[in-house]
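Researcher: Sequence recovery benchmark, item below. Answer with residues only.
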């Protein structure tokens, strides 16, 4: 058995607390149509009457509570503003009081660069940002200003007297319509984007020291098993040119493979962690995972820095608007494990053959 690592970070993909999840929670936005639909769902599933702020996380909460830092993609606006972004198929919002869900899971970081935080226009995005600030939850990818949207969130990991700094950036490659919003960090795959990302990184290292760099990206089309050449090339660029240690990818709705690249970790797609979506057979968007990353302290030439040692993947399933970890004898656990192994192998990355003691799939990084 591998020795314990010094710090644990948990990553998950989309956390969508809007629409039906919002209506089930004790506080929710005014939406009679969704409320009527939820009333029918509750009538046939009476246990949902007790759905509260802990409910979205199911039995995964202890894993979040035992981590040093939890990072999510918040796939919704949190607002009472009701004017939807025009001509968009899905517009999500959750009541700002539902930030209590994030507090219950001790979420330390929420990515705001995705295709839903502007679903109810600019004022709603600002309300979302202020909700996170008021609750001490760090964020990046959108903000009150352009500068705030592009700068990294700065978080601390502490071990006794020792303190390590973690910087997290967030960007999204869609929707293109939102390129007109300066306080939302949209990217494409041009050399201009690369230059900007490199400049942002360079500005940061001039002003402060970072012990771990994380880049959170909402990228690619839905329901695609393999990242495009553009995506893979950008991931490598982030490692090669921006010194990124962990790429936290999401958007595909289902799990994708991971790549260990030059001793750094690229998670191409975390999958949707909790939502109210219908299940697409074949792609199994109800199956996901908590992606736990183990870090060690490395004594390098320029002092101590954090090093990514290990990835542990805990398969989970969404059912009735709740995520739950899967026992190792559940056939869906096997499904996630097989998918992860096959997709990662196409990048030359092998998961350990034996599962960990908690049933997790283990990938050694360095
Ligand atoms: Zn999305």
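Model:
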């Amino acid at each position: 058995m591998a020795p314990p690592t010094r710090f644990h970070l948990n990553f998950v993909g989309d956390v969508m607390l809007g629409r039906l999840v919002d209506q089930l929670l004790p506080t929710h936005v005014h939406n009679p149509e969704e409320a009527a639909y939820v009333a029918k769902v509750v009538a046939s599933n009476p246990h949902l009457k007790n759905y509260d702020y802990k409910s979205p996380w199911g039995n995964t909460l202890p894993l979040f509570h035992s981590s040093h830092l939890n990072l999510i993609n918040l796939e919704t606006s949190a607002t009472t503003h009701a004017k939807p972004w025009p001509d968009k198929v899905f517009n999500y919002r959750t009541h700002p009081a539902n930030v209590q869900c994030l507090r219950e899971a001790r979420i330390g970081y929420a990515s705001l660069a995705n295709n839903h935080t502007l679903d109810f226009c600019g004022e709603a995005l600002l309300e979302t940002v202020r909700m996170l600030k008021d609750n001490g939850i760090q964020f990046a990818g959108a903000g009150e200003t352009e500068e705030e949207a592009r700068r990294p969130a700065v978080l601390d990991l502490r071990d006794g007297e020792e303190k390590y700094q973690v910087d997290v950036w967030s960007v999204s490659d869609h929707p293109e319509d939102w390129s007109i919003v300066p306080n939302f960090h949209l990217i494409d795959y041009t050399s201009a984007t690369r230059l900007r990302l490199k400049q942002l990184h360079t500005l940061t290292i001039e002003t402060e020291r970072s012990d771990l760099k994380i880049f959170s990206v909402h990228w690619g089309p839905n329901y695609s098993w393999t990242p495009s050449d553009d995506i893979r090339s950008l991931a490598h660029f982030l490692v090669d040119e921006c010194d990124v240690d962990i790429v936290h990818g999401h958007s595909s709705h289902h799990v994708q493979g991971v790549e260990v690249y030059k001793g750094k970790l690229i998670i191409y797609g975390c999958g949707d962690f909790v939502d109210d979506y219908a299940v697409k057979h074949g792609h199994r968007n109800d199956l996901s995972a908590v992606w736990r990353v183990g870090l060690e302290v490395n004594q390098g030439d320029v002092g101590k820095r954090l090093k990514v040692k290990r990835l542990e993947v805990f398969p989970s399933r969404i059912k009735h608007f709740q995520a739950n970890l899967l026992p190792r004898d559940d056939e869906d656990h096997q499904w996630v494990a097989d998918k992860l192994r096959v997709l990662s192998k196409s990048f030359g990355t092998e998961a350990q053959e034996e599962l960990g003691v908690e049933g997790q799939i283990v990938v050694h990084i360095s």
